[in-house]
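Problem 12. The chain below contains 200 residues. Write out its predicted structure in token notation.
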Amino acid sequence: RRGRKPKRHVVVLDLGVKHNIMRIVSGLGCRVTAVPASMSAEDVLALSPDGIVMSPGPGDPALLDYAVDTARGLLGRVPIFGICLGHQVLARAWGAKTFKLKFGHRGANHPVRETATGRVSITAQNHGFAVDEEKLPDHLVVTHRNLNDNTVAGLSHRKFPAFSVQYHPEASSGPHDSRYLFEQFLSNMMAARKPTAAGR
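Solution.
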């Protein structure tokens, strides 16, 4: 791919990002820039991203108000894809609540069902918190469920090209069951920058 112009520029908000996430996004033909999750939304937008990845990482999403503020400021500006802790941070930014699981989800063989298709993926998970479905705002759609306990495993925003999953698609435990999520993110970016009939 030497000499080929990248399709899009993706900024990763680093909450504890894994190299494989950046490798997969780069493999889709995108330029990738990792920045601290504490960076403001305006500073992130100054980098001219075509899309944002909210990365996984350790910790309680209820303590990450700075990342929630950044995510809230990015909503509707560029397509967003959240992974694990990034999913929980986005959920809070979108008005949802999170709670601590009694035991957490740990391991490489958690079955997750995509609600729209019924497709089941084998996923890797490593988290102690989840999104509270009972307090889910109407503008959010549950896209995936953990089949072990029926907790929310994926969300999308009804109005904006923003979605997230509670598991680790980059871990390839399927091994490629969840790769389509990165392709969906790329499609959202490509669609967001298509010229309109007015020539924009």
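Discussion. Confidence is low (pLDDT under 50) at residues 195-200. Students who got a different answer should revisit the alignment rule from Section 12.3.
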